[in-house]
Design a protein that fits this description.
Number of strands: 11
Shape: elongated
Order of helices and strands: EEEEEEEEEEE
Helix content: under 10%
Largest sheet: 7 strands, mixed
Mean pLDDT: 96
Structural class: mainly beta
């Protein structure tokens, strides 16, 4: 079993910053990619940013230049630094990870989500 626990969400004014963290634990043999998605009320879940084990990154168009994804492989943790936040960034942010368990099974897991609210 693999568990993902997010932290760092909250309420911030427009133009402010927040840093999200997501720690993976459990029977982890390897983590290939980790990512952040978000879902606003009435909207589909969308990719915010993703990072591979080698450090290659990919960002959603709406956050390029404002958000930065990074990971600490030794801690099985992924971070999302969010700067210049806008009210439209308000959403529940979900962490995602995929890889292999020690059993050899492939996993693709989601965290429970953390609320980010940006006030105007």
């Amino acid at each position: 079993q693999v568990q993902l626990v997010e932290s760092g969400g909250g309420l911030v004014q427009a133009g402010g910053s927040l840093r999200l963290s997501c720690a993976a634990s459990g029977s982890i043999f390897s983590i290939n990619a980790m990512a952040w998605y978000r879902q606003a009320p009435g909207k589909q879940r969308e990719l915010v940013a993703a990072i591979t084990s080698g450090g290659s990154t990919n960002y959603g168009d709406s956050v390029k230049g404002r958000f930065t994804i990074s990971r600490d492989n030794a801690k099985n943790t992924v971070y999302l630094q969010m700067n210049s936040l806008k009210p439209e960034d308000t959403a529940v942010y979900y962490c995602n990870a995929e890889g292999l368990e020690y059993s050899g099974s492939y996993y693709y897991h989601w965290g429970q989500g953390t609320q980010v609210t940006v006030s105007s």
